[in-house]
Amino acid sequence: MPHTQQPQTQELTVDVVVIGGGAVGENAAQYAIEGTDLTAVIVEGHLLGGECSYYACMPSKALLRPLDVAGTSADVDGVSPARLDHGGMLERRDSFVSNYDDSSQVEWAESAGIQVVRGHARLVGERTVRVDDAAALTITARHSVIIATGSEPKVPGEFEGVEAWTSADATGVVEVPERLAIVGGGVVACEAATWLAGLGAQVTLLVRGPDLLSDNEPFAGQSVLEGMKTHGVDVVFNASVTSCRRENPEATGLGKIHGGTVQLQTTAGDFEADEVLLATGRAPRLGDLGLDAVGLTPDHVLDDDLPNSLHAVGDASGDVPLTHWGKYRARVVGAKIRAAATGGPEPFVAEYAPVPQVIFTEPQVAQVGPTEATAREQGIEVVTAEVPYNSTAGSALLRNDVPGRAKIVVDGSTRCVVGATFVGPEAGEQLHAATIAITGQVPVHVLRHAVPSYPTVSELWLRLLEELPGEMRRPRD
Ligand SMILES: Cc1cc2nc3c(=O)[nH]c(=O)nc-3n(C[C@H](O)[C@H](O)[C@H](O)COP(=O)(O)OP(=O)(O)OC[C@H]3O[C@@H](n4cnc5c(N)ncnc54)[C@H](O)[C@@H]3O)c2cc1C
Ligand SMILES: NC(=O)c1ccc[n+]([C@@H]2O[C@H](COP(=O)([O-])OP(=O)(O)OC[C@H]3O[C@@H](n4cnc5c(N)ncnc54)[C@H](O)[C@@H]3O)[C@@H](O)[C@H]2O)c1
Q1: What rounded mean pLDDT belongs to the chain?
Q2: What ipTM score was computed for the predicted complex, to two decimals?
Q3: Which listed ligand is nearest to 183 at the C-alpha?
Q4: Which residues form the FAD/NAD(P)-binding domain (predicted)?
Q5: Which CATH number covers residue 117?
Q6: What is the pLDDT of residues 372-431, one digit of tens each?
Q7: How many whole angstroms from 182 Cα to the centroid of ligand 2?
Q8: Of 82, 281, 351, 462, whose CB has the highest number of CB atoms within 10 Å?
Q9: Residue spans of beta strands (DSSP E) within 187-240
């Protein structure tokens, strides 16, 4: 980590102060000042670029991609199956996290006119932030302070004192455990099970509920379960951990095995492992931020009940914890701050924007907008269409065996798509067409005139639109 220049003075006044330099904080600072003479500081306590760059999205996807390529090579006639190189996979990860060196991000920030200050920041008054209690730097914001402190893993009580792995250890894996227990059935659990099994661990997934990826369409979790079984992952449902003990727990370092054998008692039986990974969700990081010094609590942040000069973005705000979503909201917040500070026009903000997500499992799960079940809960007049992912010539060309399904959720009253799910090889690349259709509120009779090329997977759109009731082929009377 380079030591970026600390300001010479102990008092600093700028227009905007951002606490936390993850991808979201960086975007907020950039949009708050771009094209103006406004000044911004980001205070970062660890690495500029945050979780996504070093411990979450980038390293996980760097590890998953070789598995995807190898899996495809083993399932396309005319190609010899590729051999995985475990050491090479870890080197690829190290390269994508720049060996945990954030110099290039600091360079980017400085080139965008944003000053980077190192240290832990706390609010000490209205529009005033102190960096590290002992140090003397106090920063005053003329206009706004933005909280972009991210989130931290939830550690259930049963795991206290065990030195269990968190997702950072899984993405930063150095020593691959021979037997790995993963607790959780959500996104981190499913993605981490995929790359750690790919690296040679014997993975047991302990899921407290009856399914995987329960926030998605049910066929998503089922397809991912099949994929896991193919790769030798043992998935145990209805397995709530009641106690966890470990011999000689020790903080040995990121991605190293943190002590002796782990004994887990669960409602589905007892398990022994060499390491246990907690994938039990994350919580906004709002402690030790000085909220009380300005008469606020974490609930004020989560309820967006903040003074005009204080904003929260990204995981810290309690909004959907995804990088692209946090960055989108940060662009909006930044642009609004810029408009208020310069007297410029208010930015256009769409009334509604759907949240997309791609889960990089085998097969991939790509979803935008509500599932059928959520749409029904929202009172939408739901019409759905669903087809197998292999129902186009383009998808059949991808692999010998193409798993998965595609589904759209249409609002019968507006006849616009409100949600879509694609589960299958390279499904992530199918998603943005759906996001555009939903955001643009294109009625399905018009969408039928968006012609997908032959032979591509996008022809799933033809199949899906053909599945809808015939009267939807015309404008509504
Ligand atoms: C394993 C894993 C994989 C993921 N994969 C994806 C994915 O593929 N796609 C996706 O969209 N999302 C993914 N996510 C979610 C994504 O990582 C987060 O939504 C995103 O990182 C949030 O960005 P942020 O800037 O809000 O917070 P963070 O990235 O957490 O950044 C917050 C920053 O604030 C700093 N900080 C905190 N408190 C202070 C303080 N008081 N003073 C100074 N600095 C402070 C921290 O050091 C940190 O750098 C993944 C998450 C995990 C755990
Ligand atoms: N590709 C991506 O977009 C991506 C990848 C990884 C993470 N993320 C995001 O990061 C966030 C965190 O992911 P996550 O998987 O940790 O959270 P999650 O909320 O998706 O899943 C948490 C899982 O842990 C289980 N759980 C919670 N408490 C438990 C307990 N005490 N005992 C046993 N099981 C328990 C839940 O039932 C659920 O299955 C999510 O919002 C996710 O969307 C996104």
Answers
A1: 96
A2: 0.99
A3: 2
A4: 15-297
A5: 3.50.50.60
A6: 999 999 999 999 999 999 999 999 999 999 999 999 999 999 999 999 999 999 999 999
A7: 11
A8: 462
A9: 202-206, 234-236
322 lines ligand 1 (CB under 6 A): yes
Q: What is the pLDDT of residues 425-449, one digit of tens each?
A: 999 999 999 999 999 999 999 999 9
Q: Where do we find the tokens 């009172």?
A: 379
In this structure, are 301 and 430 located in the same domain?
Answer: no
Pocket test for ligand 2, best of 63, 208, 215, 368 (most atoms within 8 A of CB): 208
Please give the distance, rounded to the nearest whole angstrom, from the Cα atom of residue 166 to the centre of ligand 1: 14
Q: Are residues 454 and 323 in the same domain?
A: no
Q: For strand 11-19 and strand 137-147, is the pairing parallel, antiparallel, or unpaired?
A: parallel
Ligand number, closest to the Cα atom of 278: 2
* Average pLDDT score over residue span 261-288: 98
Q: Are residues 147 and 261 in the same domain?
A: no
- Write the burial class of residue 133 (CB in 10 Å: 0-12 exposed, 13-18 middle, 19+ buried): exposed
Nearest to 104 by CA among 172, 35, 53, 32: 53
Per-residue pLDDT tens digits for 316-327: 999 999 999 999
Q: What range defines the domain where residue 121 resides?
A: 11-49+102-152+284-342
- The answer on 313 and 271 residing in a single domain is no
pTM above 0.95, yes or no: yes
> Do both 433 and 323 map to the same domain?
no
| Cβ count near 209 (within 10 Å) | 14
Domain stops at, among 263, 280, 297: 280
Same domain assignment for residues 373 and 463: yes
CA distance 45 to 28: 17
> Same domain, yes or no, for 174 and 316?
no
Q: How far apart are CA 404 and CA 459, in angstroms?
A: 15
**Residue 197 belongs to some domain of the structure:** yes
Angle made by CA atoms 253, 278, 63, in degrees to the nearest 5: 70
Q: Is residue 73 in some structural domain?
A: no
